[in-house]
Amino acid sequence: MAAQKLPSDFVWGYATASYQIEGSPDADGRLPSIWDTFSHKPGTIKGGDNGDVATDSYRRWKEDVALLKQYGVKAYRFSISWSRVIPLGGRNDPVNEAGIKHYRNMIEELLKNGITPFVTLYHWDLPQGLHDRYGGWLNKEKIVQDYVNYAKLCFTRYGDLVKDWITHNEPWCVSVLGYATGVFAPGHKGNKEHWIVGHNLILAHAYAVKLYRDEFKAKQGGQIGITLDLNWQEPWDDSPENIAAAQRGIDFKLGRFADPIYKGRYPESVKAIVGDRLPEFTKEEIVVLKGSSDFFGLNTYTTQLVTEGGDQEIQGNVKYIFTRPDGTQLGRQAHVPWLQTYPPGFRSLLNYVWKTYNKPVYVTENGFPVKDEHILPLEQVVHDADRVEYYDGYLNALLKAATEDGVPVKSYFAWSLLDNFEWADGYEPRFGVTYVDYKTQKRTPKESAEFVKKWFAEHVASS
Ligand code: PNW
């Protein structure tokens, strides 16, 4: 029997995000985003770093495209920096043609090289102007209108060339890390704001999708959806409490966004615990948000074992661990504490998402930062065996989900093309298949880049 293969139209490539790679914060009329402000506050970022230079990709984007070409990808997922195209962010603020042109040039260059652009509209870099003017994501009426206006500008200027749109990247991170734990911009803490912000992110997404479907889709022929994040949650053992806990953990991380978007309502388990701090959708809004994603965009990195208990409402009062009942670790430890390699969890997750939401699944991020890679000499860094092991495991899990379980998986974007600015962790964790020397900006491919290229050459059917 011939080896199982993914269909010939399977899309694969690498993902990045504007603030993590671009640098050049003041170039050509760009104004600050909340991440510029946040990362410049002392004590927010490991090592006192910020995204002022990052991988210098605002200037080196042609080199990045050449690298993608060399890696044999079919697609590239990147995000637009809102404050490059509308520096102050709002619907009555001026549009910055230089910023518009930058992304237009890049999109054209990608297409010239046979690479399909997948564009994320919002990967966390809200224009500081909107945060200052009315509280940004906390202000429902204003932010929904301004976000839709920004989306409209992108559809208008790029939609003849871009056919795959992602409204938001990981609204869970935006709301919880930004407005509850405060480790991400804008650094607010508490147990109320993040429910409001999450709610407003859902509405902004839904109204942008409505606009695309009403005014652009017929003419431009693209698709639009959202990317949510979930690390698979596996009950620690088969006790009924821990099985229930894992489902509740999933509801608090994924269901709080996915259920409104695909089913038109919040999960009961969330409503029961959060009570009247959870905003309500109006009847009109429900009509707009239910079914407001053409696909299921999924970012995932690991699996967590779940037990009942704990008082962390934010995660549904469950606890996470990596140690099994027999004392062994779930998988290989990455450089960041929250990630261990566990491919079977990826297969379970793909099945769960398909069964629960019934949409084609686009894996939009998945990757691994090798432990201590930042202190290893380059000769060792490029032999990134632990990253290769990770991709080998996760890609084969995806293949099984697609071919044996029948999950319609349509894409796989590895995180990331380059080592880059890893948010609050600064430049220490390295997720790239390309090593970046931050002093010289020299890019050096790691062995994983070759591995991924070869894997897809062998496992995608020829057309
Ligand atoms: C995602 N966590 O973020 C983002 O989409 C990327 O920008 C980021 O670089 C990548 O994953 C790697 O971290 C996450 O704490 C940030 O569980 C934090 C968590 C998960 C994902």
UniProtKB/TrEMBL annotation:
Catalytic residues identified in the record: 170, 365
Drop me one GO molecular function for this one: cellobiose glucosidase activity
Q: Where does substrate bind?
A: 20, 123, 169, 301, 415, 422-423
- Note the coiled coil stretches, chain numbering: none
As its record notes, the protein acts as a catalyst of:
Hydrolysis of terminal, non-reducing beta-D-glucosyl residues with release of beta-D-glucose
Quote the InterPro entries the UniProt record gives.
GH (IPR017853), GH_1_N_CS (IPR033132), Glyco_hydro_1 (IPR001360), Glyco_hydro_1_beta-glucosidase (IPR017736)
Q: Which residues form the signal peptide?
A: none
Q: Which PANTHER family match?
A: GLYCOSYL HYDROLASE, LP05116P
Q: What is the annotated role of this protein in its UniProt record?
A: Plays an important role in cellulose degradation. Shows hydrolytic activity against several glycosidic compounds.
Family label: Belongs to the glycosyl hydrolase 1 family.
Identify this protein by name. Answer: Beta-glucosidase
Q: Native species of this protein?
A: Polyporus arcularius HHB13444
